Amino acid sequence: MEPANKSEISPNSFLLMGIPGLEHLHIWIGIPFCSMYVVAVVGNVTILAVVRAEQSLHEPMFLFLCMLSVTDLVLSTSTLPRMLCLFWLGAHHIAFEACLAQMFFIHSFTAMESGFFLAMAIDRYVAICEPLRHATILTHSRIAKMGAAVLVRGVAFFSPHPILLKQLPYCRTRIIAHTYCEFMAVVKLACVDIGATKRYSLSVAFMIGSCDCLFIAFSYALILRAVFRLPSREARLKALGTCGSHVCVIVVFYSTAGFTFLTHRFGHNVAPQVHIFIANIYLVVPPFLNPIVYGIKTKKIREHVLSSLRVKLS
């Protein structure tokens, strides 16, 4: 390895260290992460295949679910295979361009995940609070526009990240104390003032996360108000059960992502292994939970999968 104090615009590679202090447990830590990744891939691919094959599922809820599944597949695949190579094979080196690409996918698709959670919350609001107008409000054209807006927002706000890092000189150590190329972990290795770059990244993340979270909370508050006005106790319990499972996934996503964001800004006393472990959780747990909560617990998808299995077994 070249001297650590040599300034270069584009270093050949970085060195990912994994979870500091838990290197001796990397092999064991990789097992649950691998298991969740397999479930995430199988579950999300199954959802995409089922919705594509079943014409009756071409409804707003399932179309947004497909967008979320694609996002989950890209988000988890951009990090987990490389992370498992680090845990199990000791593959610490990552090329500079691969690091920038991974960083772009992580941050832009995390923003897209947040946007699709908001879109699904809007769909639930319209379905429960305006059931007679659901089909006319959320037409296929509007669904496509909402999906495109979420996609463009994620790409537009986070494309500057790799461009900014490409221009920075790196004259400190190339060791990244993390399991993947996280923006704040990489930018700290630069040997110039990075105040403006850090402020841009944190501001964008805060703006997107807080706005989406606020609108989701507002949507579910209106949904709860409508649910408690339903005359049937059975209907109220069914609606609450559906919304409750959705809210659990959203809470896991925003709480872990929020913890990671706040740790960069304020949590200088948080143990590195705690910070990094939770930063990994928000990349693998939502893609693992989404197909279970939105797929298995959705009657139409569950019935289609079971009927397909019965046909194949017979």
Comma- or semicolon-separated keywords:
314 residues; mainly alpha; Rhopdopsin 7-helix transmembrane proteins; three-stranded mixed β-sheet; 12 helices; 74% helix; globular; GPCR_Rhodpsn; receptor; Olfact_rcpt; transmembrane helix
Characterize this entry briefly.
This protein has helices at 26-53, 60-77, 80-89, 96-129, 134-137, 140-158, 160-167, 183-187, 195-227, 233-265, 272-296, 299-313; strands spanning 13-16, 93-95, 175-176.
Q: Give Rg in angstroms.
A: 21 Å
CATH architectural grouping:
Up-down Bundle
Biggest sheet features: 3 strands, mixed
Count of helical regions:
12
Give the name of the CATH superfamily. Answer: Rhodopsin 7-helix transmembrane proteins
Describe this protein's structure:
It comes from Marmota monax. InterPro entries: GPCR_Rhodpsn, GPCR_Rhodpsn_7TM, Olfact_rcpt, OR51/52/56-like. The chain is an all-alpha fold and 314 residues long. The protein has one domain: Rhodopsin 7-helix transmembrane proteins (Rhopdopsin 7-helix transmembrane proteins), CATH 1.20.1070.10. 74% of the residues lie in helices and 3% in strands. The protein contains twelve helices and three strands; from the N terminus they run βαααβααααβααααα. It has helices at residues 26-53, 60-77, 80-89, 96-129, 134-137, 140-158, 160-167, 183-187, 195-227, 233-265, 272-296, 299-313, and strands spanning 13-16, 93-95, 175-176. The chain has a three-stranded mixed β-sheet. Helix 1 (26-53) packs antiparallel against helix 2 (60-77), helix 4 packs antiparallel against helix 6 and helix 4 runs antiparallel to helix 7. The longest helix is centred in the middle third of the chain and has 34 residues, at 96-129. Residues 1-10 have low confidence and may be disordered.
